[in-house]
Every structure is written in C-alpha cells, then in structure tokens.
Amino acid sequence: MRRGNPRGPPHLIAVIRRANISPSFKDPSFQSRIGSAAEAKQKALDNLRSRPPVDEKVVAERQAARLKREAADAERRSAKKEKEQAAEEKRAAEAARAEETEGKAEAAAPPATEAERKAARDARYAARKNRR
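Now predict its structure.
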C-alpha cells in the first residue's frame, strides 16, 4: 500500500502553486488601505452626526433623578454611620461597666490562699480532661 505525501496530495500542491493563492505584499496597496480607512472614518462620522439631538427636557429629568438618587444614598450612608456610632458607644459603655464591676469584684474578694488556687487549677484541668 502506498503512503501519502505528508504535505498533501501532489496534484493539490500543484494546483495551489499554479493559482498563487498566497496573498501578495502589495495587494491591497497602501493607497487602497488608506482610502478604505478614510471611508470607514467618514462613515462613522456620518452615523454620529445623523443621531438626533439631545432633548433638554430629557436631560433635565435625568439630572433631577440622579440628584434625587444621590441624596437618598447620602441619607442612607449618614443613617448607617449614626447607627454604627451608636453601636460603638454602646459597646464602649458596656466594656466600661464590665471593667468597673470586675474591679469591684476583685476588691471585694479576699486574696485566694495557695490551697484555693491549687483547687481551682485542678478543677480547670479536670474540666479540660472531661472535654476530650
């Protein structure tokens, strides 16, 4: 059995060479490319100029709607900021209150003896062992 040419059948290669299918460097020429670019640019400019003019009433309505949206956004942002500030103040007050009560509890409790500290440590250790 005859194996084929890896570049393709020989008759196809001959046809391609005779037809000279590969594009030439000079075709299309530089001048024709410049001309077609100028035509495309002119066509785009014509399309732009053929657009209807902008209606001032529509522009005013859009601007009013945009200003209204911006005002609503600013109001929402300020409300959110106030809410966050109130939450932060509440957290700070709770932390101060907790610190104050902790300080009072420390002052009221007598100092722990060595045996009490050992018992508390053993209780923590036993609880940790039970969790496992």
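The CA atoms of residues 5 and 116 lie 98 Å apart.
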